[in-house]
């Protein structure tokens, strides 16, 4: 794991893979900075995310926290059309590479979601988790750790403990919006 970080405002990539090493989501992002919770990156409206068989452009500004323990990434949306405020990807080995413009991680299927409204907060993709546990042969200690973490994060999101509260992420969302970024240089072929 590298301690190198890009300068705030630098365009970068988060590249996810699955347990077997196959490619998964690739997100165009901008590095925003760090605080006591970890490193924050943002994705302005229109910036691209893609994986084999699927792609989308961000419909609303969002920021993601990459905490130093490397077992989840917290994404917080502002004004998402589906009212999704929080989406946490549980992961493994989420880290910065020797290239400060690239962070990588293993997507471990389980997610914690919070939407505005009646549905509230829940752990998502338990069916995918169960299927991939067998297909990829997740080690028992990893399974135990992430199942417990999913429940812990669900409770922290539900009770809006920092950094899962609105105020913490809103500071970073404000910074992202203030940058006034258009399409990333990556998409324009300039990087």
Description of the structure:
The protein is 23% helix and 40% strand. The chain contains three helices and ten strands. The radius of gyration is 16 Å and the shape is globular. The longest helix is centred in the C-terminal third of the chain and has 19 residues, at 140-158. The model has no long low-confidence stretch (mean pLDDT 93). It starts with 10 loop residues before the first strand and ends in a 12-residue tail after the last helix. It has a single domain (11-169), classed as FomD barrel-like fold. It has 191 residues and is an alpha+beta fold. The chain has a seven-stranded mixed barrel.
Let me know the average pLDDT: 93
CA-based gyration radius: 16 Å
Largest sheet: 7 strands, mixed, barrel
> Helicity range of the residues?
10-25%
Structural class: alpha+beta
| Number of DSSP E strands | 10
Regions with pLDDT < 50 over 5+ consecutive residues? none
Q: What number of domains?
A: 1
């Amino acid at each position: 794991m590298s301690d190198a970080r890009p300068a705030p405002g630098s365009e970068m990539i988060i590249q996810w893979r699955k347990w077997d090493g196959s490619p998964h989501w690739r997100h165009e992002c901008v590095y925003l900075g760090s605080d006591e919770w970890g490193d924050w990156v943002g994705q302005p409206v229109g910036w691209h995310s893609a994986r084999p068989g699927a792609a989308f452009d961000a419909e609303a500004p969002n920021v993601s926290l990459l905490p130093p323990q490397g077992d989840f990434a917290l994404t917080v949306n502002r004004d998402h059309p589906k009212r999704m405020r929080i989406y946490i990807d549980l992961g493994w080995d989420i880290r910065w590479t020797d290239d400060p413009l690239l962070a990588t991680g293993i997507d471990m299927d389980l997610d914690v979601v919070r939407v505005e409204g009646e549905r509230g907060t829940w752990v998502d993709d338990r069916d995918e988790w169960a299927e991939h546990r067998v297909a990829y042969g997740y080690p028992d200690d990893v399974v135990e750790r992430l199942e417990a973490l999913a429940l812990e994060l669900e409770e922290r999101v539900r009770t809006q403990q920092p950094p899962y509260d609105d105020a913490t992420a809103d500071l970073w969302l404000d910074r992202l919006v203030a940058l006034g970024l258009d399409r990333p240089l990556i998409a324009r072929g300039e990087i």
